[in-house]
């Protein structure tokens, strides 16, 4: 714990997170609803997210790396954690000791798991994203013999669009999974949940939407914002007409202007693409970013809020779909890019 | 320490880092040369960077936040660490206890420091970036009385361009600093070093160039690459003509094609803008990224390297100026976006 007060922080709305999961669980109908918490729960902080979703009723957590499973294995039953990147021979003893469950994606991984008598596992089928999973050309009934498969999964490539690939992947999934013995099937990510009951099977596994992202426009009514960045004002000044602001002088004051510099920059995940486009707020007043976003700082036009003084906290407008459009960066990248320098506090 | 082997890592070239600092020190002529190590040394890892630069002879380290000073204060003499974001009243006792030195930027910070009898400090003058520092309208000889100023600094806005703003800031700096008693003056960042002796004063403070970034084209002969990402191959497959790869099926195989999926994605800082554009290498062979970069994964065309098998490490092409051009993301953002999931090892 630092002896110093932070200058940039994320307010995280725990009620919104839980409400988003509950909405997605409702939209998932009779299917159970898991949660993708890989990449440190999309940047929010995996331990806090997992604890909250577990309280809300979530029982299936998906990470990419074993280090990510290890980081949450004291919060939930390790067997509730699925590791998407599979298992390597070098790790198999540590994997079994930890008790989290690999999602097997290749014949080699399956052989490794069988040789280690690993027990319960998950299996990924590739139905068209061609990224991870057993492909159609690798299907062989003997391959799966002796596996104790809990979740039989595949992953959608185009669920954020109304695209024929969705129906194609669905029918491949049904065909490829026929004859494979498994406790549960799972296909839908956040966007896939919106494609209807046919895509839900026994388990859905949303990610982006949990954290306030709009995987599809038709989710807007169901999903609330979770992440609210805040930054400390370090300085205010009165500039004069003709003064320029920031790197490469991209902004010029047309008149006398009150400006403030706040302690947040692209090193904190506030994308440089928001230069001249982002907005902050204070008491309901909009404060435009002027000039370039720097590594650690942004400068704001506070003409409408002359009451702002150094040492105050101000709010960053951070509605993900909107910020994605302004910055040209995907909602996913905006979340996973949230910096480690920000302290995180839950409300 | 995790019990598991990582699947994504950064090889960091310690000799290149030290050589870059030495090159910048040579280019800085008679001036001493510091180092900007804020934002976790631009994502590389501040503790390792500071230890190496200290060994190379660096004696002045610049961070933005007090937590960043705290994180390296056992590696170098705390008085060698300058904290650019200044000092707050709430922190002043902890600041004095730590012994790192604030860069004062506002009359309020100066008053706080005087009231606390903080001793040695640095002072930032704003000569035209209009971001942090005492502005021309705030200049008042009494303001600085009683301050024990070590570094009197300002910051260049357009040093990466041949722009009249550079000469303008230089002349403002000379004019504003006249009559202010200080041990040393400092104006030049990485790019500023290339503007010539007139910009060097007693101390330069490069950042980007230390880490292999090209702040200006004319630095190419002096700066070597430091950061080399590497990723583990999780899977190889043989796709057929008509198969598509990745989210939204942006890549279609025109023929039978060997592909591999590697464990690096935009959560690790490998920008989504490199979809279909980035390249990996293996034994000198170029492996193009096909389809979209995902959060945790990329898929590669390994037609020219059929010897690649799952479990192998492969190299990511990551020459910063080139990757910046391909991805549309600044070199600074590429560095500070390097993910925390990557293990870092120095060679």
Summed up:
The first copy, chain A, has helices at 14-27, 38-42, 46-56, 66-70, 92-98, 107-115, 141-144, 164-177, 190-193, 320-327, 331-336, and strands at 8-12, 32-33, 35-36, 61-63, 81-83, 101-104, 120-125, 148-154, 182-186, 203-204, 227-239, 244-245, 251-252, 257-262, 279-282, 285-288, 298-301, 313-316, 343-346.
SS field, number of helical segments of chain A: 11
Distance between the termini of chain A: 20 Å
Q: Describe the biggest sheet of chain A?
A: 8 strands, mixed
Point out poorly predicted stretches of chain A.
none
- Please state the structural category of chain A: alpha/beta
Shape of chain A: elongated
> Overall pLDDT of chain A, averaged?
97
Question: Helix-strand pattern of chain A, N to C?
Answer: EHEEHHEHEHEHEHEHEHEEEEEEEEEHHE
* Number of β-strand runs of chain A: 19
Radius of gyration of chain A: 23 Å
Question: Hey, which two chains have the biggest interface?
Answer: A-B, 84 and 85 residues
Oligomer: homodimer
Helix content of chain A: 25-40%
DSSP strand (E) fraction of chain A? 15-25%
